[in-house]
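Explain this one:

_____
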Amino acid sequence: MPEYFATVARGLETLAAAELQRLGAEQVTPDFCGVGFQGDRRLLYRTNLWARIPSHILQVLTRFPCANAEQLYQGIQTVDWSEYLRPNRTFAVNATGKTPALNHSHFTALQVKNAIVDGQQDRFGERSSIDITEPDLRINIHLHDDHCTLTLDSSGTSLHRRGYRPAMGKAPLKETLAAALIHLSAWTPDLAFFDPLCGSGTLPLEAALIGLNIAPGSFRDRFGFETWLDFDLDLWNQLLEESEAGERDSLQAFIGGSDRDPDIVEQARANAHFSSLDSHLSFACRELADVEAPADRGVVICNPPYGTRMGDRQELGQFYKLLGDVLKQRFKGWKAYVLSGNKELAMFIGLKSSKRMPVNNGSLACQLLEYELY
């Protein structure tokens, strides 16, 4: 059975593993910044279409010893590339990791490229071209402990690029992280969902996709596997039809957000309109001090600014205090979750957290703080 590897943000491996199991993956094994699993071609397509947390779904071709450039070259040439690449198709190589002898990713990628095109020249008398923007085949090389893992990227561009968000505010959350935060909150579609600092709307948009059972990949123009030589168009169309047939017509509870910046709120509304979710979501331009709970119970999730300059601390401290006051006074009966990238600022919230979950926002180590509001 084909072997795959889903890349995920650090700290989300267990969460992604549970999601992949729900989608039908077998032999699921969480690893560092990823999850190994097995399944057929249908599962490969399905995980790209439905998985909300992974960034890329890679198909493992082979592993081999790789202590130096010569072993890398020879290992790549043991693959029958005619199964995956023809001279009239383009490709790109991405290299990660290193060994003592192969410690420069550009050189590693160049060595892989040379091994592939040299083999093509010998066999066909012509070779594929490189296209780093939209190649027909994305090849990944990972070096670790004098071994090489060779994979094909079935996703193409990162899966966090859902395709529904043309407008983005400052420092937007990646869609994959937003989905992970929602899963960590244990929110269910029968509960109201609200983000009082919604920015361009990523958290409410992701919650709406879950609530309406809409596949996150249904907005994308293309996946990497669609230009593979063995692409099964009939199977892919079947999965798309099944996905569309399973969508819900309406939400069970309120989902929305607010922000003080009218331009940012318009971006959130534009994203909702672009994804045909505008009739389901509510976005309001509102100061944090004026925010009211939209229902008797539900889940609040927000991502306040972390403060990158020393002068921010006092002003943001007051902002965090206001956030805590609003949650305590206006959201009784709710659960609140705050993504904090600054422990000192989080103390200004003035509420005792019932849980602290480590989460990485890009390269920044954060905590998702849970507050039960009585």
In short: The chain has a mean pLDDT of 95. The longest strand covers residues 56-65. The CA atoms of residues 49 and 218 lie 6 Å apart. The chain has ten helices and 14 strands.
